[in-house]
């Protein structure tokens, strides 16, 4: 056959294929759809003053440009005007939480206080003498006689002016809305998660709307960035820049919540690109440490996580459902026992909560050398009331309250989950190739390879090699570490990584369950996790548990030598020495010989510990390696949550 005839034949076949395709389309035959391929991350020049870093917290939100020295810190609260007259008023509580008014609460609180008093007495002061306990009755006899002195007939503190009927107010303005005005008060984040409840403003849609309103207000009023500028580019010497965003999320995060916030920032607010990163990793960036056990003591939750070379060890993550606000509430209870002279103080009033927060910050400490009764004074300044000066005498109350972080039964919380772990992802219809898909397909592959190995073993003579093969569990699975919990081959490794991690899974479950079915393994692990989560771990025990869940002794040694404290919940005098003493006394004896120096870092580079995580986000914006982590608006519109799996710097 000549070359021309070959070309003619090939051309005829191609035309025949095209005719067949047209016929199929006419008959309505559906052809398989090839999934879109996610493009590689583009490398482009980024102007850091066009990068906004957002660190949302339960009580405050910190927002600023990556080039700013300090972020703008605003109370994370919003007041929304009633849509209809006569609508019942709703206010999210500040210091009150579920589990406080149970019959067992007071008994538990008293038992916790006894443990605190025992711990105070057992530790000697620096001069070698034990502290002399001071009873609340000694202070009460003095405080009950105190009457306030009038400083000024007017406190000069005003309620927020709502005469122009704004639809919502944010931050300090929301805190000072008169309770008689027609506004609901909402805190959109509680204990690091969306504040979803059955009351007004408790739906996910309402929470997202509150977050968008608060963050937009900060951008426009404090950073002077009009929202319309987020959706436009700026030309500087023929290079175009768009506003981008770096969002910090908790170590134990809710995937659905993160997805919705990213959607809101990119599509609603109009940022051109976003990076999502974990708070613990950003804390190491901000403090300049390569590895650390990061302890974030916030207002409503405390998270502990071990970070090594920019990677958060998933199996070491813990979230304790208590924080600074629980210390404040406990301090108020102790003040009442000591005859608190401001007798109208109530936890249901937001300005009283603000006062109690301030008193905790100026009075409380963890310095055991401060003992005996001491006299203090404080002022109250409320709208439409005179400014008053109170005298107060306090003893051990100032030390007992912050020690509740180490003895959380003192908080009197009953029937609530107090320790949270990273649970398995429930799945998302937009992300079919998630860990469930990977785990199930891996399990099927393991089963097929195991049956094939069975057939091969049956086909050859039974000898030493066959015995060894059957004992080791067939080939590659014998090389799995004992701590992986076994049972599903390499899928067991994945499952351990997805949930608790190898060491944590072993510490909660034990090992040696190699033949347990996957469903039984998961249900039993869920039950054990639930039992573990019901326990109220003290801060020192949580740190030791987190470090113990690291994979190697070398990693554990690094963590003991660099325990980084961030957040505002442990900013007490003497906190560094107090925590260091408890860690050294409780760490495993085997590590006392291996660890050269146990170090607790509370103010790295003399920075405010409340700002370290935000600062780390700003550092992240300047790194060249972040180029591959940006998720662009157009990519999010096309691929959705798959982009987080592809681009996030942590296992999604």
Automatic annotation (TrEMBL):
Residues 1-30, 81-110, 441-478 are annotated as: Disordered. Residues 442-451 have a biased composition (Low complexity). Residues 1-27, 88-107 have a biased composition (Basic and acidic residues). Pfam families: Actin. SUPFAM superfamilies: Actin-like ATPase domain (SSF53067). Gene3D superfamilies: 3.30.420.40, Actin, Chain A, domain 4. Belongs to the actin family. This is Actin related protein 8. It comes from Oryzias latipes.
